[in-house]
C-alpha cells in the first residue's frame, strides 16, 4: 500500500512541485495545507505516514506546527522544508523531533531519499 504524505507549504507552486515528485515515485497525497494551523487539523484528520513541512508560513509557522503535531502525535514523521539561511530554525526543528530537512530549491532525488529514510 502506498504511504500517504501531507504536503505543507504556503506557496502553491512549491506544493505542486513536491506533489509531482511524490506522485511520480508512487506516494499517495494525504492532503495539502497552506499554513501551520491547517496542517495540524489535516494531520489529525488523515493521520498521514509523513509530512513535508515548510518553515515560513502565515498564521502558524512550520516550527510551531511541528511542535503542535508532535505534542499530540509523538510518532509523527515530519521532514522540514527549509530555505537558505534557516539553519538555526532547522536545528530547532530537529530538536523538536523533525526527522530530517530538505533545502529549497528541491532536488527530486534528495526529497525521495529523505522520505524513504524517514519512513524506514
Ligand atoms: Mg513558505
Structure, described:
Helix 2 packs parallel to helix 3. Helix 1 links the parallel strand 1 and strand 2. The protein is globular. The protein is built from 5 helices and 5 strands, in the order E-H-E-H-E-H-E-H-E-H. 32% of the residues are buried. The chain has 120 residues and is α/β, with parallel strands linked by helices. The model has no long low-confidence stretch (mean pLDDT 97). It has a domain of 79 residues: Rossmann fold. Helix content is 47%, strand content 21%. The two termini are 15 Å apart. A 5-stranded parallel beta sheet has the order 2-1-3-4-5, sandwiched between helices. The structure holds magnesium ion (MG). The site of magnesium ion has 6 residues, from loops. Magnesium ion binds next to loops.
Biggest sheet architecture: 5 strands, parallel
Q: In CATH terms, what is the architecture of one domain?
A: 3-Layer(aba) Sandwich
Q: Write the element-wise H/E pattern from the N-terminal end onward.
A: EHEHEHEHEH
| Count of discrete alpha- or pi-helical segments spanning 4 or more residues | 5
Q: What is the tally of beta strands? A: 5
Q: What are the distinct ligands in this entry?
A: magnesium ion
Rg over CA atoms: 13 Å
The CATH class of one domain, by name, is Alpha Beta
The residue-averaged pLDDT reads 97
CATH topology of one domain: Rossmann fold
Query: What characteristic shape results from the CA principal axes?
Result: globular
InterPro entries: CheY-like_superfamily, Sig_transdc_resp-reg_receiver, ST_Response_Regulator
GO biological process, one term: phosphorelay signal transduction system
Organism: Halobacillus andaensis
Pfam family, one: Response_reg
Amino acid at each position: 500500500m502506498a504511504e500517504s504524505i501531507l504536503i505543507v507549504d504556503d506557496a502553491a507552486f512549491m506544493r505542486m512541485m513536491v506533489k509531482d515528485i511524490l506522485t511520480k515515485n508512487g506516494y499517495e497525497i494525504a492532503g495539502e495545507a497552506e499554513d501551520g494551523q491547517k496542517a495540524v487539523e489535516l494531520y489529525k484528520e488523515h493521520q498521514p505516514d509523513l509530512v513535508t513541512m515548510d518553515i515560513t508560513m502565515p498564521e502558524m509557522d512550520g516550527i510551531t506546527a511541528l511542535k503542535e503535531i508532535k505534542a499530540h502525535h509523538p510518532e509523527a514523521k515530519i521532514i522540514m522544508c527549509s530555505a537558505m539561511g534557516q539553519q538555526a530554525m532547522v536545528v530547532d526543528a530537529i530538536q523538536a523531533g523533525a526527522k530530517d530537512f530538505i533545502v529549497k530549491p528541491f532536488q527530486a532525488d534528495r526529497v525521495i531519499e529523505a522520505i524513504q529514510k524517514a519512513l524506514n
